[in-house]
Amino acid sequence: MNQTTRPRVLFGGTEFRQQKQRGIYFYAKSAIAAVRAAGYDTTLLTEARDNEHKSLLLSRIYHTLHDPVEHRPNRPRMLARYLEQRVLRRHFAREVAHDAEMLTEEHLWFLRNFSSFLNVPRIYDTIDLATRLPFSPPVDLSFAADHGQNVVFTTAPTHVRARHRRVKLVQTVHDVIPLQVTLQSDRPDQFFRATQSAVRYSDMLLAMSEYTRDRLVDLFPQAAGRVKVVYQSIPADERLLRLSEQPLVQQAVLSKFGLSADQYCFYIGAIEPRKNIHRLITAHQVVAKHADCPLILAGPVNKRYAADHGMREQLGVGRRSPGPSDPSTRYIGYVTEIEKLCLLRNARFFAFPTLSEGFGIPVLEAQTLGCPVLTSNTSSIPEVVGSSAALIEDPYSVEEIASRLQRLLEDGEYRQQLRRDGLVNAQRFSQQSFSSQLDAALREL
Questions:
Q1: I need a surface site. Which of 106, 155, 212, 367 has the fewest CB within 10 A?
Q2: What is the DSSP letter of 186?
Q3: Are 241 and 219 in contact (CB under 8 A)?
Q4: Could you give the domains of the chain?
Q5: To 10 degrees, the CA torsion angle through 262, 410, 272, 154?
Q6: Global pTM value
Q7: Strand locations in 197-348, DSSP E?
Q8: Taking Cα atoms as reference points, which of 12, 319, 4, 343 lies closest to residue 152?
Q9: Per-10-residue mean pLDDT, the chain, length 445
């Protein structure tokens, strides 16, 4: 890529259409900030309904990003849009400058890292349908060249290509878990098609760990020469980090949930089979004979998983308000970003006995905030934490999880050592390092 002209990077990703902000969402925000910090001009691919008046179009873009579910069309309209774009073989793209004065909620503050939006009505619906239909070729994003975009950067494997010679396609692969485990509800056929397209048509593939790179190359050997390992940064808003340092803010959050500092252990994330939460709950019940250090759980619940493992009551599934029948385990539902930061800062330790991860950002978030970490010695986790966390060799063993929990509950000196080691380890994953890695990768195009 010629660096004498100002490169322009078009970011595309469907995670901004989801109400649940999961790992890929936070990766996307970090990647956008990192590329912007490296000096690239950044644009976001959006899909709002078009309008000739730029102010109205911009307003629609913001509203679609703020509440994407509300603005999704019904299926007949989605299919009609897909057929229109396929038959006409063109996309009606319009670029509109970002309005820095637009008032919005905190979850959209990442938009300040964009200079503009490239809007193509229902582009992500078209991509979704193309991914679902076995006979459909990938969606061509060559229209990016008409607006001076040098690079299309997707934040996850996407069923797209860019035929235009002036457009380079960079796609991110976080993991290949849906193809290797039975614990994911994602449809493996759709994930395979998206990943296969990424491997076939991308000029560069970014893997979040050596573990992910190796698994990807095992499945698609032809990708070997185009995969770059780029360790992502810890996603954190500097303003919220500073706010979470304030004692009064921390105390307000603890009071809201009826907690005291260092008197609870904490898990936040999806409560689903791959995260191994039912074994964590059982192990905690074994060692927590008294409810003086309850296990606090936060995050979205997979209802089937909760039902299959007898956790419906503990996780408040089907009840009007969350709350456990077992005092040693408490589910507190959804927490805001500032609440998450404060709860991590004050937990005795963070428990994350995952079965498989492509990277493992939750453990690094905890370490950054000085929270000791208990996690699994599996998949990418040892690559990310090294010896800075308490590692479970067999996360399927309730006995071993219980043994590790007990030491963390009782051994204050051990927790202090993990706290110190975690803070040192987290420094490897700074936003500056991430920005430098992405810059170096983009310069190779």
A1: 106
A2: S
A3: no
A4: 8-233+430-443 (3.40.50), 238-428 (3.40.50.2000)
A5: 60
A6: 0.87
A7: 204-207, 227-229, 265-268, 295-298, 329-331
A8: 12
A9: 69 77 81 94 92 86 81 64 62 86 76 93 88 90 94 96 95 89 71 95 96 96 96 82 95 97 95 94 86 89 88 67 64 92 97 94 94 97 96 97 96 97 95 94 93
